[in-house]
Amino acid sequence: MDNQKTNGFMKKSEKYWLIFEEKISEKRRQTNPYIDKVLKSENILINEEKIFETAGNWDKYFWNKNGIYLEIWTGLWNFFSNEIARIENKNFIWLELKYKRLFMTEKKTLEKLQTFWNSNKFVLLKTKWQNIDKFLSDEEIEKTYVFFPDPWGNKESQKKHRLFSEKFIKDLYAKTKNGWKLIFKTDHKEYFDTTLDLFEKVWLWKIILKSYDYENETDKFNIKEITEFEAIFREDRIKVNYVEFEK
Fold it and tell me: How many structural domains is the chain composed of?
């Protein structure tokens, strides 16, 4: 199985320059029971070369031409599984790096689809968001969710690790269909304002809704659609910043 033939370094690729391949030792597989579960899954892709090769062909992968929703680091697994069960006739792609979250998201999602008799298709990709220009073609997705990404610290050396950058904003714009959206939530006001400044600098996306108190200032809030992190913030009375961008 190709998923098991990985090594611990960045590997040169004739087509993609570099791809990440992870060495999985026997000891690590024994201490992390989710690794083998992920390797056996038909809904989780971890081989980056195969992931990148699917760009422009996700309709063939899903065996339909339904619109695609992309979710990046949206907490644990409840939001993803609930969205798939709630929204009909869409395909879903979720990015994650941790084996437990990959497996538990798949497990929860399959349970929800069976419970609600929903035929939506989904795939979990073990790859970083910076690779969006490699695993998607232009105008291939409809909506993107980015909920509560790590704000890192306030030092410039830490901020460089944040999800949003000028390149990522431009790449995501190119991969999104005209008239469709990006939705961003965070409890971190400085990160929220810094991100808005970046979007204004790039000057591509249009803001159609912005709020520093998502629950109390908009009609978008639905208690049934919040993430696990958002539930914690509500208990601690922490306001959630929310913005919808449109291409």
Answer: 1
- Nearest-angstrom CA–CA distance, 130 and 156: 19
End-to-end alpha carbon distance in the chain: 40
User: Which residues constitute the domain of residue 89?
Assistant: 43-246
Residue 85 sits in a domain whose CATH number is 3.40.50.150
Alpha-carbon distance of 185 to 200, in angstroms, equals 17
Query: What's the token pair of residue 124?
Result: 């979990």
Neighbours of 138 (CB within 10 A): 14
The closest of 159, 226, 231, 225 to 198, measured between CA atoms, is 159
| Contacts of 222 by beta carbon, 8 Å cutoff, 6+ apart | none
Amino acid at the residue 195:
T
Inside any domain, residue 10: no
Q: Are 167 and 198 in contact (CB under 8 A)?
A: no
**Is 144 a domain residue?**
yes
pLDDT tens for each residue of 137-175: 999 999 999 998 877 777 777 777 888 999 999 999 999
pTM greater than 0.85 (yes/no):
yes
Structure tokens at 34: 């989710």
Domain assignment of residue 178, yes or no = yes
